[in-house]
Automatic annotation (TrEMBL):
It is an enzyme of class 2 (transferase). Residues 70-337 form the Pyruvate carboxyltransferase domain. GO terms for molecular function: (R)-citramalate synthase activity; 2-isopropylmalate synthase activity. GO terms for biological process: isoleucine biosynthetic process; L-leucine biosynthetic process. Pfam families: HCS_D2, HMGL-like, LeuA_dimer. It comes from Galdieria partita. This is (R)-citramalate synthase. Belongs to the alpha-IPM synthase/homocitrate synthase family. InterPro entries: 2-isopropylmalate_synth_dimer, AIPM/Hcit_synth_CS, Aldolase_TIM, Citramal_synthase, LeuA/HCS_post-cat, LeuA_allosteric_dom_sf, PYR_CT. Signal peptide: none annotated. Gene3D superfamilies: 1.10.238.260, 3.30.160.270, Aldolase class I. Its EC number is 2.3.3.13, 2.3.3.21.
Length: 648
């Protein structure tokens, strides 16, 4: 005899539909109400084939279960590596496991030893090299193959040889998958699950069963889906993990089904959730399952994984901790942003700025109304304090800005004080800067990705700033040259019967740039003492390269630290395709200072791509100098009237 337990039904009319997994019939069938407590209805199961009663009733959803803690199970190294373009080396895997342990997750799934030699190697090295302080390492595999004994199954043997405290096996729990894909009888699948779990328990493992396609299986034949979980329990499974393998379920479906499972097994049974992101719902679905009583969440860092990915732990962890009050990783939460970006570096995938919580844009504010409100009340347009997850607030400057955006920027740059903001003269300046931004964006600039350009633009409107140099002239010559080798390798003449043999020459593009600069010289970081005029020329493999080299040569003569400044990225966008070659071109240049490790970007737009590029380059070098020698070029307002820069 066994009993099934349902949560409170109340006094509303209740229809019980009992399902038999063999016939999948769904009609009132073979149950007996034993007793009715005020909160719980007990149903006696008197036929072995009846596995579950489902019901329709008018009760509102029951309140969420109050769980003591939620365990985080990181499967980045297994399911994450099933994502396209992701391939970890053994060393990567060891580093990631160590880092995730330090971050404070409870389980780290290291891989599938039955899948490939790399994962076997990982578990072998992990035994010696990976000393986890907090998390349990997990080896992943599947239930035994059909028609064999567990002790003859290589996959199960390798799982035990991985010597991890915990093992997770994937089990089919959807009738259709069992019949069509596994191609075994429903009974044989139940036996595969039960025996595999028992075998692993006999090897003293903590065993989790990932019930693949559970939610789809439950829709198709709930009784059989539950029978699979029952088989796992009979084998001794510690955790039952419900999987939305195809990522096609809605949050309320996940909630209802998880709630039923939790009710079926009782709240002492650990239930886990594993969601995929095919409808962008993996995070919501995982949280819905927690709300319904699941106490373990499987997911991956940054949501890496098969197809569109897995549930993103980088969103789930802060939500559990900050919104649902579970202490998941404690104070380590403030390293989340750094961790997420580090994972992108290890996987060699670009940082996605729009990622919630940790993306560069997660707390970036653009609209003037938003910025103005935030200046009055920090949290006006933020759901949390960014510092809680190690991120930062950013105010963007663009044509959608209001005065608030400029004020914020100037405050950050310590260019204006609260009392100055009351001064009509400063108000006029700020309005002037705002208008300049809007006018330049109308001409093709975009200041959002080019914070160095906006900073320079603001400084140049103030009396106390001297530009450290000025480009007086520049010339760029570019052309194509045919270079002859003399005789060909075979020793034939260059010209045979009036035809030039192809192997006797090559085409070379040659570009030369000449720049004339007026540069303010400084002495030991003090104020500029002299103005120097410099001519320089350089050859490069294209116009930008040649100008960059010539500029740098000239500037380094006066300011040696600029030697470390390098052009890192160069993006060109034609803004008005219809005007073809007469279109405005926007150039954005990214710089890197190898000594200070700073990165910054500048922007310029012009109908001449070379002019736009040269201006963006000049701004980049100017910003570098400003960072390194601020005292040389910024003065008190009084000083500046006598030392205004007049270049030769
Ligand atoms: C939903 C998930 O993400 S589950 C994890 C999926 N991850 C991976 O598949 C990555 C690792 N996989 C692998 O390295 C390989 O697929 C292996 C080593 C596991 C198996 O490789 P092969 O032996 O060549 O089999 P192949 O992959 O072609 O087919 C899978 C076999 O496993 C069987 N199988 C599938 N699920 C299960 C299961 N839960 N229990 C037992 N057998 C299963 C299939 O029926 C099929 O067997 P069949 O060909 O006899 O019908
Ligand atoms: C193996 C399991 C956990 C899986 O990836 C899935 O079913 O989605």
């Amino acid at each position: 005899m066994a009993y099934l337990c349902w949560p409170k039904l109340g006094n509303s009319t209740t229809v019980l539909n009992c399902k038999c997994w063999k016939s999948n019939s769904c009609k009132p069938f073979g149950f007996q109400v034993v007793t009715k407590f005020p909160t719980t209805l007990w149903i006696k199961r008197y036929q072995k084939r009846i596995w579950l009663c489902t019901m329709d009733h008018q009760q509102p959803n029951p309140p969420p279960l109050a769980l003591d803690r939620i365990d985080i199970y990181d499967t980045t190294l297994r399911d994450g590596s099933q994502g396209e373009n992701i391939s970890f080396t053994v060393i990567d895997k060891l580093r990631i496991a160590k880092t995730m342990d330090e971050f404070g997750v409870q389980y780290i799934e290291g891989g599938w030893p039955g899948s490939n030699p790399k994962d076997v190697e990982f578990f072998k090295r992990a035994k010696k090299e990976l000393h986890l302080g907090h998390a349990k390492l997990v080896a992943f595999g599947s239930t035994r193959r059909k028609g064999i004994d567990c002790q003859d199954d290589a996959n199960l043997r390798l799982l035990t040889e991985a010597e991890t405290p915990t093992v997770t096996i994937v089990a089919k729990s959807c009738e259709k998958q069992v019949v069509k894909v596994l191609n075994v009888s429903l009974e044989e699948n139940l036996a595969m699950i039960e025996e595999s779990v028992r075998y692993l328990k006999e090897h003293n493992k903590e065993v989790m069963v990932d019930a693949e396609h559970f939610f789809d299986g439950y829709k198709q034949n709930a009784a059989y889906a539950l029978a699979c979980l029952d088989a796992a329990i009979r084998g001794g499974a510690d955790v039952l993990v419900l999987c939305d393998t195809n990522g096609g379920c809605l949050p309320w479906e996940i909630y209802e089904t998880t709630r039923s499972v939790v009710s079926h097994f009782g709240s002492h049974q650990r239930i886990g959730i594993h969601c995929h992101n095919d409808m962008e719902l993996a995070v919501s679905n995982s949280l819905s399952a927690v709300y319904a009583g699941a106490s373990l969440v499987q997911g991956t860092m940054n949501g890496y994984g098969e197809r569109t990915g897995n549930a993103n732990l980088v969103s789930i962890i802060p939500t559990l901790q900050l919104k649902m009050n579970y202490n998941v990783v404690g104070s380590k939460l403030s390293s989340l942003t750094e961790l997420s970006r580090w994972m992108d570096e290890v996987t060699n995938l670009p940082h996605q700025p729009s990622r919630p919580y940790v993306g560069d844009c997660a707390f970036a504010h653009k609209g003037g109304l938003h910025v103005a409100a935030i200046l009055k009340d920090e949290q006006s347009y933020q759901h949390i304090d960014p510092a809680l997850v190690g991120n930062r607030r950013r105010m963007l400057i663009s044509e959608l800005s209001g005065r608030g955006n400029i004020v914020d920027k100037m405050k950050q740059m310590r260019l204006v004080t609260d009392s100055q903001l009351q001064d009509p003269e400063w108000k006029r300046r700020i309005q002037g800067i705002l208008e300049q931004v809007k006018s330049l964006e109308n001409k093709g600039y975009t200041f959002e990705g080019a914070e160095a350009s906006i900073e320079l633009m603001i400084r140049r409107t103030l009396n106390n700033y001297r530009s450290p140099f000025e480009l007086l002239d520049f010339t760029v010559l570019t052309g194509n040259k045919r270079v002859y080798y003399g005789e060909s390798l075979s020793g034939d003449n260059i010209v045979t019967d009036g035809v030039i043999s192809p192997e006797t020459f090559r085409n070379e593009s040659i570009t030369q740039a000449i720049v004339k600069l007026g540069i303010l010289e400084t002495s030991n970081g003090a104020c500029p003492i002299e103005r120097t005029r410099c001519f320089e020329a350089a050859e490069g493999n294209g116009p930008l390269n040649a100008v960059n080299l010539a500029l740098k040569k000239a500037l380094v003569r006066v300011h040696a630290p600029l030697e470390h400044v390098n052009l890192q990225d160069y993006k060109v966008r034609i803004l008005d395709n219809e005007s073809a070659t007469a279109a405005i071109t926007r150039v954005m240049v990214e710089f890197y200072d190898a000594e200070t490790k700073r990165v910054w970007s500048t922007v310029c737009a012009h109908s001449n791509i070379i002019v736009a590029s040269v201006q963006a380059l000049m701004d980049g070098f100017e910003y570098a100098l400003l960072q390194r020698l601020p005292a040389c070029f910024i003065h008190s307002e009084d000083e500046s009237s006598t030392k205004s820069p007049v270049l030769l």
